[in-house]
Design goal:
It is built from 16 helices and 14 strands. The protein has helices at about 5-10, 15-25, 50-60, 70-75, 95-100, 120-130, 155-160, 165, 225-230, 235-250, 260-265, 265-280, 285-290, 300-310, 320-330, 350-360, and strands spanning about 30-35, 40-45, 65-70, 85-90, 115, 135-140, 155, 170-180, 185-195, 200-205, 215-220, 255-260, 315, 335-340.
Length: about 375
């Protein structure tokens, strides 16, 4: 049987190889990333490294180990690089690597980073896709790898770099059912599967909006702390419940509940950022200390969900101009923009101000609580 004959069963081999590599990286195991001209590196997430594993990796490689860091983390370390950079690990131990990767106030003592090559950048992209801290350890290996590395997952750098585009427009509806909501009444939950990691995303259809008419829509990124536990550090829970009630009063709408916790950084990194906020940094500064850009979220998948539901003309409930641009670029007709209110309190006023000042959210200049 030819490999192409299995495509209906297993899907695109490149996508499958990346999904398997993501699972390995999240589990703390290394993968082999291959490039052109028989080049290859052994790669592992920096946050996963411990001393025995670091020693074993160095023994398996044919070159020096290096640490790949994002531009955001390099800026914090004192180097304004527009691209990812690499630092030679030398004899650094695992504890020192963890400090370089995520601690505040660290400096490199004059060790300037070199530019990351294609395989290094692919390793960093893979770690990002796995919702881990954006830092990777890479070590050159010879093509052929040898028996010691034969059990590791192999993935091409090109497959990693094209992964988002390959999976983003392929959501499929896997379940739907009516779910009556308090103070709202009629609604339907529609579960989509697809995109990165085949995660489930939910569209909540409030009332019975006509697909032929403009529909009110909100893209709401999941917030475990705010949505479920009513955290006072953010405005997410207020926005979620307020939007659903407002849609009901307006005659219906669609709430897209997206699995993009912590601006797409994942729940673990969100809690790491919370710890930094407790030390006095704002929400965006905390993300940058951890090596993340301003916002890791993407909304093209949300637009694909709307199209599958039959809605193409939307009235967007948001304070975030990036969401407006994303839906327009994805081919939806954004007819109007409506701000979403929430309480400002002594605990979240700094968070709201940072969203306004750092990301351009449409929030009042004079925040009162």
């Amino acid at each position: 049987m030819h490999a192409d004959d299995l495509r209906p069963l297993i899907g695109d081999p490149d996508v499958v190889s990346v999904e398997r590599a993501i699972a390995e990286i999240r589990s703390g195991r290394p993968v082999i990333i291959t490039g052109e001209k028989n080049t290859a590196v052994l790669a592992i997430a920096a946050e996963s490294i411990e001393e025995p594993a670091l020693s074993a990796l160095k023994q398996a490689a044919t070159g020096e180990a290096r640490l790949v860091l994002s531009p955001s983390r390099l800026r914090l370390l004192g180097y304004d690089n527009p691209e990812p950079g690499i630092l030679p690990l030398g004899d650094k131990r695992a504890a020192a690597i963890h400090e370089i990767v995520s601690h505040a106030g660290v400096r490199l003592n004059g060790v300037a980073p070199n530019g990351a090559d294609t395989l290094d950048k692919a390793a960093l992209n893979l770690v990002r896709l796995a919702f881990l801290l954006p830092a990777a350890i890479t070590l050159p290996v010879e093509q052929g790898f040898g028996h010691a590395l034969s059990g590791l997952i192999n993935v091409a750098a090109t497959a990693i770099n094209h992964f988002r585009e390959d999976v983003v427009n392929a959501p499929r509806i896997v379940a739907r059912a009516p779910v009556p909501l308090e103070e709202v009444g009629e609604s339907e939950f529609v579960v989509f599967r697809g995109g990165e990691g085949m995660r489930d995303q939910v569209a909540v259809i409030i009332g019975n909006p006509n697909p032929a008419e403009p529909v009110y829509v909100r893209m709401h990124s999941a917030c475990l702390t705010g949505d479920l536990f009513a955290s006072l550090k953010c405005d997410c829970g207020d926005q979620l419940r307020g939007t659903v009630k407002r849609m009901s009063e307006l005659g219906g709408g669609v709430l897209l509940y997206l699995d993009q916790e912590g601006r797409g950084n994942g729940i673990a990194n969100k809690i790491r950022a919370y710890r930094l906020q407790h030390a006095g940094y704002n929400t965006f500064e905390s993300d940058e200390i951890l090596g993340f850009d301003l916002d890791q979220r993407r909304f093209d998948f949300a637009a694909a969900m709307m199209k599958q539901l039959g809605y193409r003309k939307v009235r967007l409930l948001t304070n975030n101009p990036a969401k407006v641009l994303a839906l327009k670029e994805a081919g939806l007709d954004v007819l109007s923009i409506h701000r979403v209110g929430a309480r400002s309190t002594s605990q979240n006023v700094g968070y709201l101000a940072a969203k306004r000042d750092f990301a351009g959210h449409m929030i009042e200049k004079d925040l009162k609580f």
